[in-house]
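Q: what sequence does this backbone want?
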């Protein structure tokens, strides 16, 4: 079979990495297309894949409003995708972006991969509408398009962080932090430049300073940030090898961020996670990780007293690590190895979709 994987976010690279490698190992032909965003190209290069970068110069146009950027880039992306796929015939396309439209024009089946809820990211309606199916967690809300949903019991991060795929390795940490495993605190700040982020707040500087002041009384604090930080916090900025970020998260005592994706990753790893932003409650996966399994706690910016109070509660818990690892085990018992499922789903498409639709118990084979 011939597949095309087109993705634009580092998180999707991690979600597809094991699947792509296994499909290649089984003799299938796999084309990979990306854009230059964050560290996507570095990650792809690290796997040694042949790939095509649609936007080696980067897709975002400087000094252009977010919404206008999105509109202009939609047309630019469609043009480059049509040019790249001209003359190529695929059995299946898997994506998190605009190639759904290209696939429709080429009459090629396409699966849109997401862990977002339609109500949280309404602009994705065009991608969902033009896809044959939507592969997403069973808890994800797809509204009118629920008939396209291939809902699996799990989260996106289980594709690369399930115990079948990920083994924490303290040697992946910097020499300084290897002796501080489970003793340091990791904070991650995002830039929040997507269309669905406009007008929303994340981990604001004043609160960040208060959190750092509290945590620094209990251990080493390291910050990894996509955005500029105030001078008072510069000494906490710590260089982290992005290839090993999951190991840094696993061995941290606490993980605090305004990244929904990375907070979910921390939760799946059993690291106490605190998400602070305006959007955490928009995603159904939060309710699962927080309300059902107690692995993640979210707060809106401005609730400083509640946030500091919760952090103190965690800091004073002498059994914190063992309790959260037990919560993690409970979570894993109920959810699948997503990579194992995707390999089967893609390799046996379209018959595999029929199996999933008619027999939900089939997921037991992927735990």
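A:
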């Amino acid at each position: 079979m011939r597949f095309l994987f087109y993705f634009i976010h580092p998180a999707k690279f991690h979600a597809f990495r094991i699947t792509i490698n296994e499909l290649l190992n089984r003799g299938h032909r796999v084309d990979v297309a990306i854009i230059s965003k964050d560290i996507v190209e570095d990650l792809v290069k690290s796997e040694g894949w042949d790939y095509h970068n649609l936007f080696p110069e980067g897709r975002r146009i400087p000094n252009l409003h977010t919404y206008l950027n999105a509109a202009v880039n939609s047309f630019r992306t469609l043009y480059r995708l049509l040019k790249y796929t001209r003359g190529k015939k695929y059995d299946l396309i898997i994506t998190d972006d605009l190639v759904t439209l290209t696939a429709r024009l080429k009459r090629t089946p396409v699966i849109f991969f997401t862990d977002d809820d339609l109500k949280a990211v309404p602009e994705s309606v065009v991608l969902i509408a033009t896809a044959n199916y939507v592969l997403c967690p069973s808890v994800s809300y797809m509204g009118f398009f629920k008939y396209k949903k291939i809902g699996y019991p799990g989260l996106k991060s289980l594709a690369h962080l399930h115990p079948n795929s990920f083994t924490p390795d303290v040697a992946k940490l910097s020499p300084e932090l290897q002796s501080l495993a489970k003793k340091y605190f990791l904070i991650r700040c995002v830039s929040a430049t997507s269309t669905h982020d406009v007008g929303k707040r994340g981990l604001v500087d004043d609160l960040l300073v208060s959190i750092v002041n509290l945590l620094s009384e209990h251990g080493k604090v390291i910050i990894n940030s996509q955005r500029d930080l105030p001078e008072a916090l510069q000494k906490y900025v710590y260089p982290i090898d992005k290839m090993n970020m999951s190991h840094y998260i696993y061995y941290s005592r606490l993980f605090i961020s305004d990244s929904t994706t990375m907070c979910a990753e921390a939760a799946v790893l059993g690291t106490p996670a605190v998400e602070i932003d305006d959007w955490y409650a928009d995603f159904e996966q939060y309710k699962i990780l927080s309300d059902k399994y107690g692995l993640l706690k979210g707060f809106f910016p401005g609730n400083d007293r509640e946030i500091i109070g919760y952090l103190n509660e965690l800091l004073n818990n002498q059994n914190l690590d063992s309790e959260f690892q037990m919560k993690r085990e409970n979570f894993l018992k109920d959810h699948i190895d997503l990579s194992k499922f995707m390999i089967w789903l893609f390799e046996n498409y379209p018959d595999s979709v029929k199996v999933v639709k008619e027999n939900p118990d089939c997921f037991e084979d992927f735990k």
